[in-house]
Design brief:
Chains A, B: This is LacI family DNA-binding transcriptional regulator. Chains A, B: It comes from Faecalicatena fissicatena. The structure is a homodimer of 332-residue chains. With 332 residues, chain A is of the alpha/beta class. Chain A has three domains: 42 residues, lambda repressor-like DNA-binding domains (434 Repressor (Amino-terminal Domain), Orthogonal Bundle), CATH 1.10.260.40; 129 residues, 3-Layer(aba) Sandwich (Rossmann fold); 142 residues, Response regulator (Rossmann fold). The first copy, chain A, is built from 14 helices and twelve strands.
């Protein structure tokens, strides 16, 4: 069996660097990373066998608890977790919580009993987040910043910046009457994106207008209906995520409204469907793959006794596609 | 702790019936099923604790290996497996194979080593399917009918009927020049759907026309381009699945072709996105939830020493939405 030292020697790096590349968490110079990957391939190095020998106490299983695996955000996230886990010889135990606090609690208990190496969770329940601080195994909370001391680490995107980017983009597209489909204020994502929108409204002297919504497609359809009743003259909509933007598009076109000609629309997340659907959605992209990869990486680093950051905030960026149109393009 | 006998007594059924309802696999009279579910709720009966006591040798884990968890067909299937497993106190270990034979083999070995109670797999690899027959734990193959004696049981939809339904529907919509985006002939799904299309062509004296495609979005875009070059006068397209139909819609509208006015389009699967996108897709629906549920049920029945069917073929049905239009509606 090839050893990590042999791989390191061939790649001309330290064994610690090989380990870092395998864990995928720390910054490694891209040239070095390539050399390590080539050395791994050349030697047929099997990291899981090594890890198995080194960390016998580890069950090599990471629990992943998501509200809904059918929601593309979570299937993309889970896939990224799985890929990172697989590369390092771990497996994922996938649990679907249906946003049910009881099911979440049972899943957490079960994962602890099964001696999972850690839990990666996105929870919408206050009761669950309270118990996470006392969990005997490491917990990485994704896409939520929980109050208090819950969890070992958390990962989220810069929602505040995202809210600002979305609102400013609609301003740049000439919108005067922007409505925000506001995500739940119980979550940091909802609060911070809304705050970003609010600050842009203030800056440009626009009226704050919002409709409450949750992050699923059905809620989006209902919220779009309410929006059309309450704000029939809107010319720009910030959806709380891409799934909701997709449902807003459907509701509005069903009412004969044209997007982006009459009403411009922006989502959040940049799930793959946002560019598969027609028209493709303008959205605020959060790096879902990197977030999932890091979540797995943190659990693995914890198992291996390595350091990791507790707070991990990822940058977001505006992705302009077909549901918005900048002013200069409108004049063409 | 409540026993299964107490639940049975309250519901006025036999303990075996309670077990059947919990496993969700055998036919149970709907009224009885409701009584059992109420009794379970009333007593706070915890099937997993019971099962744990009864089947100590079971690891209570079911391995699920899919080519791509981001593909909605597989995330919907996995969710159904998870829900059925959870109800009966099992967990799923989710593996993403990326259609890579080596990754599939490693996943299978890993699941065997972890003493999973069984494996639910959709594989596209001949080499993998050959080893499944010798797998020491039960294997349920979903959405593929493998050659030879691979696997413990298999589950698929009636693809031949689906192919016929799709083609006949386009005929009824007035299409004269139908092109079939043919799924891979290596899979029963691809072969049988194509055969169904072929038989309808023969019956109605239509010319057979096809373009090869695989089941993913990117392949769909390429195939749509080829289709437009080779068959510019087509008036009806049978996509090999909904993801491909979504990409065909995008390619065709980008070329200024109108669906369904000029070209009618039908998908296959009835994934949730087929009704979320605009326009909603006409498609051939396969009961994805029921298939996933049965897959988990078979593994659990195997653990519990109960009988199950080896061959399970589910019916399909036509779902008419916005990408096709019947002749009489066209005249309106």
């Amino acid at each position: 069996m090839t050893s990590i030292r042999e791989v390191a020697k061939i790649a001309g790096v330290s064994p610690a660097t090989v380990s870092r590349v395998m864990n995928g968490t720390a910054n490694v110079d891209e040239k070095k990373r390539q050399r390590v990957l080539e050395a791994i391939e050349k030697t047929g190095f099997r990291p899981n066998e090594l890890a198995r020998a080194l960390y016998k106490k580890s069950s090599r299983m990471i629990g992943v608890i998501v509200p809904d695996i059918e929601n593309p955000f979570f299937s993309e996230l889970s896939k990224a977790v799985e890929e990172q886990a697989y590369r390092t010889g771990y497996r994922i135990l996938l649990c679907n919580s249906d946003d049910d606090p009881q099911k979440e609690m049972m899943n957490i208990q079960m994962l602890v009993q099964m001696k999972a190496d850690g839990i990666i969770i996105t929870t919408n329940c206050d009761s669950t987040s309270r118990v996470l601080g006392d969990c005997p195994i490491p917990v990485v909370v994704v896409d939520r910043k929980l109050k208090g001391e819950s969890g070992t680490a958390f990962i989220e995107a810069d929602h505040y910046k995202g809210g600002r980017l979305a609102a400013r983009h609609l301003v740049e597209c000439g919108c005067k009457n922007i409505v925000c489909l506001q995500g739940p204020l119980a979550y940091s994502s909802g609060r911070q994106r809304y705050q970003g929108y609010l600050d842009i409204c203030e800056k440009y002297g626009l009226k704050e207008q919002h409709v409450n919504c949750t992050y699923d497609y059905e809620a989006g359809r209902r919220a779009a209906g309410e929006l059309m009743r309450r704000f029939p003259d809107t010319d720009g909509i910030i959806a709380c995520n891409d799934m909701v933007a997709i449902s807003v598009y459907k509701e509005l076109t069903a009412r004969g409204r044209r997007i982006p000609e009459e009403i411009q629309l922006i989502g959040f997340d940049d799930i793959k469907f946002s560019r598969m659907c027609t028209p493709e959605l303008t959205t605020v992209s959060q790096p879902i793959r990197e977030m999932g990869s890091l979540a797995a990486g943190i659990i693995i680093r914890h198992v291996e006794g390595e350091e990791f950051l507790q707070e991990n905030v990822f940058d977001v960026k505006l992705v302009e596609r077909d549901t918005t149109r900048r002013k200069k393009e409108q004049k063409k």
